[in-house]
Records
---
Amino acid sequence: MNRVLVIGSGGREHALAWRLSQSTTVEQTFVAPGNAGTALESGLTNVVLDVADFTAVVQFCQVQNVSLVVVGPEQPLVDGMVDALSAAGIKCFGPSAAAAQLEGSKAFAKDFLKRHQIPTASYEVFTEVAAANEYLQNQSFPIVIKADGLAAGKGVIIAEDLAEAEATVADMLADNKFGNAGSRIVIEEFLSGEEASYIVIADGKTFIPMATSQDHKARDNGDVGPNTGGMGAYSPAPVVTPEIDQQVAEKVIQATLDGMAKDGHPFVGFLYAGLMIDAQGQAKVLEFNVRFGDPETQPIMTRLQSNLDELCLAAIDGRLDEVSCDWDERYALGVVMAEKGYPFSYDKGHAIHGLDQMADDIKVFHAGTASKDGDVVTSGGRVLCVCALDEDLQQAQSKAYEAVKQISWGSEYYRTDIGFKAIR
Ligand code: AMP
Ligand code: GLY
């Protein structure tokens, strides 16, 4: 029986830990640091651990006989958590620091895609304002400007005209508004179409798709307003037709795994390709993430029926071809309830009401929550993700929103149209 440690504190980690705890081959699931949702979940135990201190994580794993560590967020992966734990003989699921550069550096990812002829927007990389501005003079608009490093989802600006593009270049390269992440930038062609997330579990050579999904990155209904980490998601996503599925599996995912292996950094972990699918059904890579998506994880984990720990261990051992993955055929749809003000500044500490009267086919995953004096209180921008399952996507949507309406803390904000592209 496995003893598992999940690293992270968001909705993604609540969903991963919840699914792991239900595995028939898991006896104990720890979450470090977790949130109020993982604290309340039967079968999960929050642990106080500085997850940036890899020596402390190794010690915890040794004392607790942890047989599998699953890392939720990108930062510890980019910082080398898998390398450090593996060196101590602990099975840690995720890419090495070298392979995590696919997310850690957009310039690395773009150069990789180009070198291996994987479809993506055309681009150039700059470190100097003058060279970037000179390049911009001959481009068409809108154009996309990206900070190279990790910027918590805020490092991508779509500039509508030359003035906005030059101002963004100045913000990133001269004024350091994105910190070190913006000391190098990628300027790339604007792609239009419909976005989809394609997430797989990979063992360095082969992969198993983790079900299709679609995120809703814009804050407001109809995909307008500022970009966020994601305001809701559903799975499966019909935009990924069987033809697109096959195209992406072969020309994007397998090509990426082959390229990474050839370059000496075999990719083990969850690999997430953010895609733009054009009107002709051609998919191009917008970005890679080297981890599961948040909020895509929440509906996807609601549908996963296989033992997640066994999948992760098979990937670490390079034998994914020996296992398979079963899914609940129903649609899962998750609505993110955020604190008003997100993704900018917002309050914390509001007591959340209505959490304990949910129907059986509803699962509420916590993200920015904490426990205080016996209450569950808000402690982040994205607070909850309310997921519902149904054979019919529209029904799943109605159920999720019925549950959302039962929950309140006075300043909640959510989109009321999650799933609209597949329902309209
Ligand atoms: P990224 O973090 O690179 O996925 O970018 C965040 C968001 O910016 C994406 O989800 C897209 O909505 C948008 N975006 C990024 N690159 C492009 C592009 N080349 N063309 C159009 N939109 C883009
Ligand atoms: N939902 C987008 C992400 O996790 O990056």
---
Amino acid sequence: MKILVVGSGGREHALAWKLAQSERVQMVYVAPGNGGTALDARLKNINITDLHELAAFVESEHIALTVVGPETPLAGGIVNLFRARGLKVFGPTREAAQLESSKDFAKAFMQRHGIPTAEYQTFSDVKLAHAYVDAKGAPIVIKADGLAAGKGVVVALTLEEAHQAVDHMLADNRFGDAGARIVIEEFLAGEEASFIVMCDGKNILPLATSQDHKRLQDADQGPNTGGMGAYSPAPIVTPAMHARVMREIINPTIAGMHKDGIPFTGFLYAGLMIDAAGNPKTLEFNCRMGDPETQPIMARLKTDLLTVMEHAVNGTLDAVELEWDRRTAVGVVLAAAGYPDSPVKGDIIDGIPAETPESVTFHAGTADVEGKLVTSGGRVLCVVGLGDSIKMAQKQAYESVDKIHFDGMQYRSDIGWRGLKH
Ligand code: AMP
Ligand code: GLY
């Protein structure tokens, strides 16, 4: 069988790597892929991003199944288009992807269906937005309504920051259409976790739990990033917490989408904030897998991913039970100098160790230029280590990290630290 993975990040490398392990898979195409997917003999990059051209490629190559990584093609309707042409694809329709592509849609949906989330209001008028900020006080959170590549959220600790964020989004149009409306919401304190499930429209299959590290520097200091590392499982999600999140958040979301006439198919990612008393609330939905959460999660998945995907697109996910490596996986992101604002590109990358049962390195912002591997994006690599405890997994990951070099390489040295406190 031939499979297509759409995207170019570490998430897509991990998905393609896992799919390629299936005995029934002959080739995994990655569109457009990266330096790592270019180097792997079982994977093949294709340089197509236009959705109609992709569909035509899938038809001409007789690709059996397409898995979509990032939110942009999903919000652009790749699933609608592929389905209309009779092609098997795993992901949400454009309509269902609104859970991520419109914060206002997601918040109104959660309110309507009684799903716990921060109190909020939506604004397109600058004056009313400023007045609401003043009425609520700081800390307060300002979010661009649309997709903003992870940059559309400002957690304002002071009123000044909050007013500035309102002006940037609504008055200065920093995010274009994506910021023409903003959601202003209550600041939630607590510990975050990533709760990701697969859904076929009706049946829900939870993946292993994980936790991201959004801040650039150790101990969660510095600016927000796309994610500097992740580990799985996340001990904060105890079996009792897992059951509660399913009951209060995931099940009502899938049922609510069904009821609203927009059945959800694909990966559903609930970003959770769990307060000190142990109450989970939904910070956001993503309609895709997390990056870098996917990397440690795929490193732990033992079940054949192709079989799972087939059930997912055929509406029979209830027939699947996932088997996980009992070890912990810690994934450390190696980022380029200047990340997240203005990453430096074009530096030569050396020393990536060969895959072992204890460690695997997934590529993200890398390119294969005339046989040389160079940096080509902000998050360059994600180095995953596996071990019987978080500490042992960290040791594996950082031993591999120590072998890798590129100019200006920056990474956190504490991935997994919150897990060590539980
Ligand atoms: P989002 O894209 O909505 O997940 O926001 C990005 C990050 O901003 C989250 O991972 C949180 O760290 C933070 N954040 C978002 N909403 C809130 C909130 N209501 N209270 C506190 N932090 C938040
Ligand atoms: N790791 C956070 C995200 O994928 O949105």
---
Amino acid sequence: MPKISIVVPCYNEQAALPLFYQEITRVAGEMDYAEFEFVFIDDGSKDDTLPMLRRLAVKDKRVRFVSLSRNFGKEAGMLAGLEAATGDFVATMDADLQDPPALLPALYKAVTEEGYDCAATRRTTREGEPPVRSFFAHMFYKLINRISDADIVDGARDYRLMRRAMVDAILSMREYNRFSKGIFGWVGFKTKWVPFVNVERVAGETKWSFWKLFLYSLEGIIAFSTAPLALASVLGVLICLIAFVFVVVVLVKTLALGDPVGGWPSMMCVVLFLGGAQLLCIGISGQYLAKTYLEAKRRPVYLVRETEEGVR
Ligand code: UDP
Ligand code: MG
């Protein structure tokens, strides 16, 4: 029988976890044509998540877990899960039931019968989300698709089912700064997009503030595009052209018209603008340098403290 691994990153999910487990086992029960393995990642939770996982693993042999030594973030958790998963097919989904397990049979059908390597989900509405956040999200997707070669779909969730080949491709990307949406797009493979209507989390709270999301989007841009680095050159050329026109204007005014060019305010504008533009460009280079620095250290993306087999 083919084996499906379900990878679930969990950070302080004690409220949602029992509901999730109930729902996923129900769906797994319906899909009796496949074998299941549930790989939960405890991403350094401070609540009852880990004891709960321990109990589940004792009760249900399909349940496995990997507990990280501290909170490493969802991206690290997903990597830990993909590395631990042993299935022929691997699905990633959130623990808060915002990724409905009920879609699994349809996703599975797409990869086994319809010739896709991956079936991914996309939410069609952003209901229940502040409008400002939706606006910036749309802007982000437009921008990143223009400046990067990873195909990143607006509204895509991290809920997807992949064939082993695609999972191995993702695992072969050893980068430290992991922006999953970009990585999924970058590896390619034939992906079927399954739309569904957005659902709110069943219990507990979201871990994402607007500011965190904003910083995360910058990470995504830095990880998957070098276009911002070209900004300095583009600005430089533009300013040189403007300066050249300015020189001609000043020369003509002084020599031909004998008009002494007054200019303290205009000078200040030019100095401030140039100073600002230069700092901006150095700042952008700095961001890339910082990421390069972190990559160069080759630190592990996550550290494991405990699994269902015991404490390491
Ligand atoms: N998560 C995680 N580590 C973190 C933050 C979140 O493993 O540092 C998990 C969380 O438990 C959930 C999923 O990532 O299963 C999505 O998180 P959340 O629901 O807070 O994000 P949202 O759905 O609001 O984007
Ligand atoms: Mg959620």
---
Amino acid sequence: MSSLPVLVLNSGSSSIKFSVYEAGDGARTRLFEGAVDGIGTDLGKFWIKDASGKKLVDETPALPTRAVAFKLVSDALHSGHFPVPAAIGHRMVCGGPTVLENQIITPALIDEMESYTAFAPLHTPIAVYIMRESLRLFPGVPNFVCLDSYFHRTMPEVVTHMPIPSEYATMGVRRFGAHGISYESIVHQLQPNVPEKLIVAHLGNGASISAIRNGKCLDTSMGLTPTGGIISGTRTGDIDPGVLLFILRKIAETAESATDAADQLEVVASKKAGLLGVSELSNDMRDLRDAIKEGNAKARLAVDKFVWTIQKWIGSFFVELGGLDMLVFTGGIGENDIVSRAEICAGLGALGIKNDSARNNVRGEATISAGDSAVTVRVIPPAEDLIIVNHVVRLLGN
Ligand code: AMP
């Protein structure tokens, strides 16, 4: 295959990140990356950096709508200053039960994935919007969807099946997991020496943990939606369903309709809970660490709950895997919060995990376990865009 520019589009609820890679036979070179951030505000950010980090675009435009935001990206890529992509890869959290494979995007596929918006309600609306706009603004360029749920497709039925009446299971309600492209990128970076028994903790504003055997996902903490699993920045994580029913009944006393009540409950569980809900301060670990230093008890409780939940999941995955060879931390907290890593590892001595405080005193890629630790503990930043480019190249070849 000759070299091709491949555009990667990764949208969040208020941002669109993008990068362009030159992809040839086995070689992948990032040419530039950028983002439009602050969608829905008067003072957004739009920047593009080249491979050396030099800013090529650095603007603060009004970004009233996602249409305005994506038009900025498209106009820049059509301006003649950057290579027009030969193929485009889109990150998508969950395509639903009928779309489990990465594949070429058609209008019918977008409609099908959109029908499962309830399975990733914060992520799917903007992702399908960008896909439709991308087909329109880059006519003739093949677009491919790369799913987070793709990595989790190897989980056995006992893991994916939910303990609910089968009428709901047949509607597609099951465990899908998320952060799959991040997990896939960690396994990719460990090749050719992928340990047999691996646990990866992706700890960012959204957080999840996966048990991986011989490079394949065995189990993951997130469930139907990214709200399940461990407590994260603004999400409850797994919670007694009775708590949701209690809150729903309270909301229903003043809600305008059943839909309004469900929407309000979703905001509580996904945007107001987690570290933010418990601390009543912030969903950002940096703020919480600062507050803990000043003696803030609610911040301490929020972080203690975060650490405790992660330890419980790692313990249960240890049993499921029948032991553990390696634990990897990734994501914004996993890569940068030295204290969280130390606190998590401190409670895992029974599993043979021993952290070395000097080695742990780093940000970014490192091995942080002690020499006599039975389990290797590493920090590895994810390389999600590269994984998307690899899928695009593979699918183009097909
Ligand atoms: P992500 O969603 O992967 O970008 O991770 C975002 C989270 O990483 C933020 O909410 C912070 O809590 C955390 N984070 C980023 N940098 C640091 C840092 N230097 N120290 C502690 N936490 C950090």
